[in-house]
């Protein structure tokens, strides 16, 4: 083979390899990044929730500080039962999209970076949206006793209002 | 120019362009991702801190819930003064690397995903590490009054112990 044909062959080969690398690099860069703050914790097995939920107890209430702080991860569609807190609760939305509803009010969407203050003794529920997981940190005062668990959130209740 | 030489020229040109794209793609993919949960808030201008600090008041304490919750961003080297909390405090490390020290104890490093429970009335300080910014959510009970601010953390105190 003469020199020119050899050069042609080599260049074609290099181009083929380079194009393939380029395509692979694009694909990697297109994958979404996901930055978890707190470990997911343990899968919740009690019946206070619908769907798949994980709990990481970050801080337990004690005589020094009556706040319990936990990170909760809800898979899409998962939610708490209706429930209330005798000392209220604060929800920090760390990731994803969630739903929150108080008795007598419309369901609202809660997004990463938003905060919800649940009033004392008002029945409410919260969880992931239908299409997205939801990660929350819940700050719950224990000084007036434990959470009062009520009935499950029906699919009809869950699906009404905003998506 | 004959056909072979033309092909050679075209292929060389394509290779040159492709290599350049490939290099650019690598550079973009190498930039670190940063996923902020809460907005940084306002630059703190009072003298309770050393260095540059931002505060986003997420939840104000009120008669319903006596917890104040804020997101604080410390630039590298920035820290609080020594101070104490009459109802204690909980620090959730959301991002970066920070320092925390209680009076009479060694300074410790606090990393994203870790939690610190500050005891009632114990003087302490916290902030970013020397080389990394630090983002924390602080949960502070206000039922026993306000934070008691003490003296600034000297550079010697800040730099002793782990880096």
Automatic annotation (TrEMBL), chains A, B:
<dbReference type="InterPro" id="IPR014710">
    <property type="entry name" value="RmlC-like_jellyroll"/>
</dbReference>
<dbReference type="InterPro" id="IPR011051">
    <property type="entry name" value="RmlC_Cupin_sf"/>
</dbReference>
<feature type="domain" description="Cupin type-2">
    <location>
        <begin position="72"/>
        <end position="133"/>
    </location>
</feature>
<protein>
    <submittedName>
        <fullName>Cupin domain protein</fullName>
    </submittedName>
</protein>
<dbReference type="InterPro" id="IPR013096">
    <property type="entry name" value="Cupin_2"/>
</dbReference>
<dbReference type="InterPro" id="IPR047263">
    <property type="entry name" value="HNL-like_cupin"/>
</dbReference>
<dbReference type="Pfam" id="PF07883">
    <property type="entry name" value="Cupin_2"/>
</dbReference>
